[in-house]
Amino acid sequence: MAIIPGRLRALRKKHQLTQAELGARVNVTKVSISGYETGNRTPDTDTLNDLANVFGVTTDYLLGRVEHPTPPFLYEEALTTDEANLLREHLEFLRYRANKRDDSSEEDA
Predict the structure, then answer these.
(1) Each residue of 52-105: pLDDT tens digit?
(2) pTM
(3) Of 73, 19, 74, 22, which is closest to residue 52 (Cα–Cα)?
(4) Has domain 5-63 been given CATH number 1.10.260.40?
(5) Cβ–Cβ contacts within 10 Å for residue 36, how many?
(6) Rounded CA gap, 70 and 51, in Å?
(7) Least crowded by CB within 10 Å, which of 22, 25, 39, 68?
């Protein structure tokens, strides 16, 4: 599966790296980085992981599977199961309250 070319280029520029500098960090040539950015080449799995690590994003973000560069906090590895469940319950409550507020606003209108 190919990287979304615009995302890789944007990340590289955001981190103020040249194609050669990025290539050196992930052990590929400048030509390979250029190919990834234009969509003419596809990195192998190790290189894809290295690119994600350099930029602090997920491989799913580079591949276009998700819109956010980092996973939501609910999937943070440091959370215990109990903490994640509490956060989910709190989120459900906040959504319920927001929906209730929206419903009462519509009745007032």
Answers:
(1) 999 989 899 999 988 878 766 655 667 777 887 788 889 889 999 988 877 777
(2) 0.66
(3) 22
(4) yes
(5) 27
(6) 14
(7) 68
Give residue 81's pLDDT.
73
- The alpha-helical segments, DSSP class H, found in 4-80 are 5-14, 19-26, 30-38, 45-55, 59-63
Band (36; pLDDT cuts 50, 70, 90): very high
Crossing angle of the two packed helices 19-26 and 30-38, in degrees rounded to 10: 110
Domain ranges in the chain are 5-63, 73-108
In this prediction, residues 19-41 reach a mean pLDDT of 96
> Which 8-state DSSP code applies to residue 29?
-
